[in-house]
Design a protein that fits this description.
The protein is of the alpha+beta class. The chain folds into two domains: 172 residues, FAD/NAD(P)-binding domain, CATH 3.50.50.60; 154 residues, D-Amino Acid Oxidase, Chain A, domain 2. The chain contains eight helices and 19 strands. Strands 1, 2, 9, 10, 11, 12, 18 and 19 form an eight-stranded mixed beta sheet that branches. It is globular, with a radius of gyration of 21 Å. The protein starts with a strand and ends with a helix.
Length: 385
């Protein structure tokens, strides 16, 4: 066993784990982190060039204060790392007036007194020639929306965590862990490591690391596509094109980004097959392209030209698509951290701070009760019966 003792061990050093390592290490704690790959990498959930960040949060008003803190912390990380991590483009959200996307974004904006615009389709077409919404749609414009660069964000957190003294072991998957009231031991193929507290931030590998705890998590294949516009290419540059999210029917959401020089990136949300990290199909095919291309032909007809590239990542979903942040019910010194159901990266900087607070004080300054394990009790009881 490694003779050195640590304050906090972290399994998984992607979006949430890297941020946790940074926040803990900068507080002077002794941190050790493990990852089976060498992040940032393309095997998990934190790659693909861009991620959306937005303030008028349709998924729930409770997220707004957390994402506002995330904006602050991304700015601090940019300054400390000297990297460009965030690009403000504004964001357009489309849907019917009563849709989850429009109603949710408007409720969040009004509740938190955010700056936003509610636009008619004539106003949208006048402002952005690239969008072709249906006449009965409504749009919300969120001026603070924009782009995060996930690989650079993870790299910045990890570099600064190491600068502040964290020990980060790449290419070392955690084989097992166990806990008692005083310490946690993490075992890899190279040895065993002891810490007072453990953060499980392994993303799609988390279901394998719960030590028998029944949590209804489902790993989903998510395909990202980059297209070459067929016309008006200059209108898809980030100075002219906001990030965009379309609610085209119940449970049918598409989202995308301006062209950063590699094409217009577009994906359909929650349309992938159930998978595991071991059996995930990592190549895209015509069946992946078809629904995205059909959406674009209708709503953004200048986009669906040549398919320039594609990537596959993984979502780890909860049944209600909210996060999972909670202490392990059997071990008070182990936190289960953030299977984010595909909308979590924007929060990573703030989640790192939240997890650091949980590891050091046992509580957070934010109300994170909606992310707790107890909401799954009824689901588990139904499965047993």
């Amino acid at each position: 066993m490694n003779s050195k003792n640590y304050d906090v061990a972290i399994i998984g050093l992607g979006a949430m784990g890297s941020a946790s390592a940074y926040h803990l290490a900068r507080r002077g704690l002794r941190v050790i982190g493990f990852d089976r790959h060498s992040p940032p990498h393309d095997q998990g959930s934190s790659h693909g060039e861009t991620r959306i960040i937005r303030e008028a949060y349709a998924e729930g008003v409770a997220y707004v204060k957390i994402v506002q803190r995330a904006y602050e912390l991304w700015a601090e990380l940019e300054e400390e790392s000297g990297r460009d991590l965030y690009l403000q483009t504004g964001g357009m959200m489309f849907g019917s007036d009563g849709s989850d996307m429009i109603a949710g974004a408007e409720t969040s904006a009004v509740t938190h007194n955010l700056t936003f615009e509610k636009l008619s389709m004539d106003e949208v077409r006048h402002r952005y020639k690239i969008f072709n919404p249906d006449v009965d749609m409504t749009a919300i414009f969120d001026p603070r929306s924009g782009i995060l660069y996930p690989e650079s964000c993870v790299e910045a957190h990890l570099e600064l965590a190491k600068r502040h003294g964290a020990e980060l072991l790449f290419g070392q998957p955690a084989v097992s862990w166990d806990s008692n009231s005083d310490s946690v031991t993490v075992r890899t193929e190279n040895g065993a490591y002891t810490a007072q507290f453990l953060i499980l931030a392994a993303g799609s590998w988390l279901p394998q690391l719960l030590n028998g705890l029944e949590v209804p998590l489902q790993v989903e294949r998510q395909v990202l596509m980059w297209y070459e516009p067929t016309a008006n290419q200059e209108l898809f540059r980030p100075e002219n094109c906001p990030i965009f999210i379309w609610d085209t029917g119940p449970g049918i959401h598409f989202y995308g980004f301006p062209d950063l020089g590699t094409g217009v990136k577009v994906a359909r949300m929650h349309f992938g097959d159930t998978a595991t990290p071991e059996n995930l199909r990592r190549d895209a095919d015509a069946d992946d392209d078809a629904p995205v291309r059909s959406f674009l032909e209708h709503f953004m007809p200048d986009v669906p030209g040549k398919l320039l590239s594609s990537q596959v990542c993984m979502f780890t979903n909860t049944p209600d698509e909210h996060f999972l942040i909670d202490l392990h019910p059997e071990y008070g010194n182990v936190v289960i951290a953030s299977p984010c159901s595909g909308h979590g990266f924007k929060f990573a900087s703030a989640m790192g701070e939240i997890l650091a607070d949980l590891a050091t004080t046992g509580k957070s300054n934010f109300d994170i009760s909606m992310f707790g394990l107890d909401r799954f009790d009824n689901i588990n009881e139904q499965e047993i019966s």
